[in-house]
Amino acid sequence: MEENKTKEKSSSGDLGVGIVNYGAGNIFSLTAALERQNITYGMIDTVADFEKFSHIIIPGVGHAGAAMEKLQQTGLVDAIRALKKPVLGICVGMQLLTDHSEEGDANLLAIIPLKTKLFDKNLGMKIPHMGWNNVDLKNNLLFENVDSETQFYFVHSYFIEYNPTFDIAAVTYGNKFSAAIQKDNFYGVQFHPEKSGEAGERLLKNFSKLSS
Amino acid sequence: MLSKRIIPCLDVKDGRTVKGVNFVDLRDAGDPVELAAQYAKQGADELVFLDITATHERRKTMIEMVKSVARQLNIPFTIGGGITEIADAEALLNAGADKISINSAAVRNPILIEELAKRFGVQFVVLAVDTKHVNGKNMVHLNGGRLITELETENWIKQAESLGAGEILLTSMDHDGTKAGFDCGLLSKVNQMINIPIIASGGAGSMQHFTEVFQQANVDAALAASVFHYGEILIPDLKQELKRNEIPVRI
After folding, report:
1. Is A91 among the catalytic positions?
2. CATH architecture of A17-209
């Protein structure tokens, strides 16, 4: 992938966003959104690649258990756990940050002590949770200049339990769960910022400006 | 609260949108990228591109178009038309499509639904169904309603859901083109049978029709083509009208 467009370099020596390249779903839309925001990016294939970037994104679509297996095959797991740079997990990439997913009964990165669960079919809600939903945002740099109750685009069948310690944005679909979480330098969003209109693009921009 | 989605559908032939559009600030109404961006700006929640190219250059043309759209568009979009095998779907996914819609290929080979869902996830697989009322039954049709199948619409949709379809796009061929409103009766019946999202299609002629289909059939999304393309209904006006009727929408 090309590393171009460096207009928005921050004063902190921003090296751009590294995308963990572990083969879990298509990342064309994500890289396109970064390009539209003039955010430099590149791919992370090896442990050494982490040094090339100031910010890290873990994308992910599909099955969390399968995604974790693929991530393990890359040999990047320990390096991810040790990161001190801002890290953003998107969708399944967010779920990977948690301890465990009911999808495939899989143990995950265990960076944030939370569980990823299947929507309760007894609540009478359609699965997947697909479409635009209101997000109740907490005060966080990730959401700078994004109005609370802004809508983001979700597509998922598993969710991260609500926990006030790590929750930075909540959403309700059947029950209330976390739309975004944070622990130290690790952030996760369940929705797809790259598909969430201007608010999503704003969020990616905000992430790229977080200081280490 | 999860919003009801408004989805303009664009017909594409040889990489160009067909059917005229008269948005004032469009330079090239035939450019799918510019048209898509315009719809996103107006507040469309999602877009569907239906490829009607008949030549054997189609796949290449379609992939190029999908890439161009994905570079510019910041909302989700679905590609339909001519997808018959896993390789088609994979190429579209890698070009940036969020979902694919399959129709006749799934009727001919229902296992395709299962294979696509296993490989790419249920959220990627939209089953499009064209239905027509025949002798008291709802029958699945192919080729734009010209070819009847032996499948009853309700049974087919149930089967597709169990195979792994993530969403249903149900077009009533009796209502399509009439501008007399959606088939709320059938949509409501089907919606109550399934636990995946359903998109209503066929018959939109006024803003009132959208209100009706959300209130009466409680569908998750409503799709239309000509009322949007010819500017008869503007999406911001439609969203305001739906909001006035207490239907949750993204504004």
Report:
1. yes
2. 3-Layer(aba) Sandwich (3.40)
